[in-house]
Amino acid sequence: MKKLLLIRHAKATHETGYADFERPLTDKGFKQCELMASRLIAEGIKPQIIVASPALRTLSTANVFTQETGLPKAITNKDIYDASENALLKVIYNLPEEHDFIALVGHNPGISQVLYYLSGAVKDVPPCSVAVIEFDADSWNELHEHAGKLTHYDTPKD
């Protein structure tokens, strides 16, 4: 059985002067990460590894989650940045097979689209939302449309 934890990056600045790739998290964004990581811990949800976009806001989100959960440093994958649904699916199909539970930290609209494609669940995915999808599959490349079941979904409440 494979499990995927989708995480949308936390609240990032929209101030001018930053290239999109370099936009940092706001103070609120860091607080969202700590809150959501603690909620996952309370629910006993702990992936084996985290794979993240190398953009500053996603990598910062992943770093807070790894620190809070005691996971190893996140693996970056440039293909997650600004990824369409198809590009994200390609990343997922190529996740390391030795891991059965992986977190992926990315951007919208791709995260929302993949959540719907893999689970059929229509959910609002505000910054720092988390969603766990479970699959009756032995390999990441076996996943297909609506193959998974959404078993956990949470968003930070403002």
Automatic annotation (TrEMBL):
It comes from the Bacteria. Pfam families: His_Phos_1. InterPro entries: His_Pase_superF_clade-1, His_PPase_superfam. This is Histidine phosphatase family protein. It comes from Mucilaginibacter rigui. The lineage of its organism: Bacteria, Pseudomonadati, Bacteroidota, Sphingobacteriia, Sphingobacteriales.
